[in-house]
Amino acid sequence: MHSKTGRATKRLAQMIVERIDCDEFEIRAADPYPEAYDPTVERNQREQNDDARPGLAGELPDVSGYNAVLLGSPVWNVRAPMILSTFLEGVDLSGMRILPFVTYAVSGMSEIDQDYRDTLPESNVADGLAVRGEDVDSAAADLEAWLRTNGLM
Ligand SMILES: Cc1cc2nc3c(=O)[nH]c(=O)nc-3n(C[C@H](O)[C@H](O)[C@H](O)COP(=O)(O)O)c2cc1C
């Protein structure tokens, strides 16, 4: 039995917001993903196969003036959801520090931080934080250690 999608990563993001001085932006799809697991898996599989760029809801944020971006997502089929590619192609993160965080079920970081290094050669991508979705509520110590390692706490 799978829980509904879209909860664990948001919770982890909230835990970050509670701990550091930062602004929040939620990457949302113009055509929202279903809350149910199986149709989301099917849609994501299609989008990965097509190298799709799903549309974003709302305006892109103005990221100029920031020096670090904490970039979170669930792990979907051992990668970041394709909408992260839409987002990254729409904002200019060159010269910034990127701190990736993911929630997952089994496959951990899945080299998503390495994928960002490949797609963002002008950014400085840190080693990511991977938290099992079911364990987010007990991940405060790991989160804080990662924030400290990166000089944010
Ligand atoms: C489409 C889809 C694909 C997934 N693929 C993986 C995967 O490859 N590896 C993994 O560990 N978990 C995978 N999961 C599980 C999610 O990464 C995990 O449940 C995550 O915590 C969900 O975050 P959320 O509650 O923010 O949606 C997948 C979930 C979905 C919906």
Descriptive notes:
With 153 residues, this protein is an alpha/beta fold. The chain has a single domain (8-149), classed as Flavodoxin domain (Rossmann fold). The protein has helices at residues 8-19, 37-49, 82-90, 112-119, 140-149, and strands at residues 68-74, 97-104, 124-125, 129-132. Strands 1, 2, 3 and 4 form a four-stranded parallel β-sheet that branches. The model has no long low-confidence stretch (mean pLDDT 96). The protein binds flavin mononucleotide. Flavin mononucleotide is lined by residues 5-10, 37, 40-41, 44, 74-78, 103-107, 133.
CATH topology, by name, is Rossmann fold
Overall geometric form: globular
Report, as a whole number of angstroms, the end-to-end distance.
37 Å
> What molecules are bound to this protein?
flavin mononucleotide
* Uncertain spans: none
Main sheet summary: 4 strands, parallel
**Second-tier CATH architecture:** 3-Layer(aba) Sandwich
Count of domain modules: 1
The overall pLDDT, averaged over residues, is 96
